[in-house]
Write a structure and sequence with these properties.
The protein is an all-alpha fold. The chain has helices at about 15-35, 40-55, 65-85, 90-110, 115-130. The two termini are about 15 Å apart. It is flat and about 40 Å long.
């Protein structure tokens, strides 16, 4: 994941530490997962989700909407992985569904700023893919994409 932020903008003073905190917590969770300590990893990823929620709820100049939403989605997917590792498949599915439905709500809410809607649209593939992974309780949903489609060419890099 690539983070786009200006390094020394005073308006970013509170956002960049939050983003760095999210990265630190996520790395700690991933290290615990690699050590086969799913419950410990879960604790780190829940803390990372709290930080991601703060980033998502309050837009910060210099932190791209894609990065804010990616932190939110990745935190949910990491938590779902922990639940799966602990054999709690329904909790894993609920966690993925939570992130997926939040993205859909952002897309469907006309009060959501257009750039954030575009970012939500770009993140949907992550939650669709996670929902379609075959686990005992996680079955792909039959939801269709919302009618929101960004202008042609706006998402190409």
């Amino acid at each position: 994941m690539t983070f786009h932020a200006r390094a020394h903008d005073s308006a970013n003073a509170s956002a960049l530490p939050l983003l760095e905190e999210w990265k630190r917590l996520t790395q700690a969770g991933l290290q615990a997962s690699r050590a086969h300590c799913a419950a410990h990893a879960l604790t780190w990823h829940v803390k990372a989700l709290r930080v991601a929620n703060r980033l998502l709820l309050q837009p910060f100049d210099g932190v791209a909407d894609d990065d804010r939403l990616a932190a939110f989605v990745v935190a949910h997917l990491n938590i779902a992985d922990c639940y799966t590792d602990m054999g709690q498949h329904s909790e894993a599915a609920e966690c993925v569904d939570c992130a997926h439905h939040r993205l859909l709500r952002l897309l469907q809410d006309e009060a959501t700023p257009y750039p954030l809607r575009q970012a939500a649209y770009r993140q949907l593939h992550q939650t669709f893919a996670a929902q379609s992974q075959p686990t005992p309780a996680c079955v792909a949903t039959s939801q269709t994409l919302p009618s929101f489609m960004p202008p042609t060419g706006s998402l190409l890099h």
